[in-house]
Amino acid sequence: MHIHTMDRWRHPHEFALHDRSAEKKVLWVVVMTVATMVLEIVTGMLFGSMALLADGWHMGTHAAALGITAVAYYYARTYARDRRFTFGTGKVGVLGGFTSAVVLAVVALLMALESVQRLLAPEPIRFNEALMVAAIGLGINLASALLLQSHHHDGHEEDADNDHGHHRHHHDHNMRSAYLHVLADAVTSLLAIVALTAGKFWNWVWLDAMMGIVGAVIISKWAWGLLQDTAKILLDRDFDSQVVERIHQLIESDADNRIADLHLWKIGAHQLAAIISLVTHFPNPPEHYKQLLAPIHDLVHITVEVIHCDTEPCIPLKRRS
Fold this sequence. Notes:
Blueprint: H1 20-47, H2 50-78, H3 92-120, H4 127-154, E1 158-160, E2 167-169, H5 173-202, H6 206-234, H7 241-252, E3 258-266, E4 272-280, H8 286-292, E5 299-308
Parallel strand pairs: 4-5
Antiparallel strand pairs: 1-2, 3-4
Helix pairs in contact: 1-2, 1-4, 2-3, 2-5, 3-5, 3-6, 4-5, 5-6
């Protein structure tokens, strides 16, 4: 058999998220974030505001993290047909989300350390100028959040499983990480405004540093949640037990099939792959068992091993219509 004739039997392994619209939106957010970062760092140093300076450096690290998000989209799209990736590039976006979560955690740590240092050794602040720049930063953050919002919420839609009534959650972890970075930027900008306002009118200079600590705690919590979600997928630990039960039900309700071994894992944000070994007295072609699993829409790559049991059947052979 010639190699080229095998193409008709091969199936695609393109399980990545190819959302060019999301990719372009992330690039726009990167540009806006970098511009705001430069503005806040320069003015924060000139006006002596820790909250503003922390927000500026924070946005700088977020610009790098958002860059990771954009690169992940590009990489997954570019190498989607590369056969060196056994199950395609579906996990590239998850890896991008994990990396961004690590960046978020580092940002939170640096913010906390710098804020504690400023709390112990306060510095004079030019409140009016700092407030103006912080307001500009918040406006850009909110605009970025609105730009990404539709894709973020679309990724959390629930689709009913037609035959079983279960709900499936579709997560684009790459977009989720970008959205969280923008939200973190907005929170730190808002905290900076609160701190600067209190410092200007009530001379609560200490609140500037305290808000940096509060922001670090909030960002740490978001980072931890994203780390947990993406790490489980990267380590092939994250799957829905209801899907496992459904696979058993669909396979074992046909003839006298019994599943002897089952491996289920994610190969993308919401796509699943499965390797199933089943034992039966009445074997069918593997395609028959794949058709039994058709109601589970997230199962996009299935390998079936059929083991013929040669002992006495426990049920009579069903007549085929």
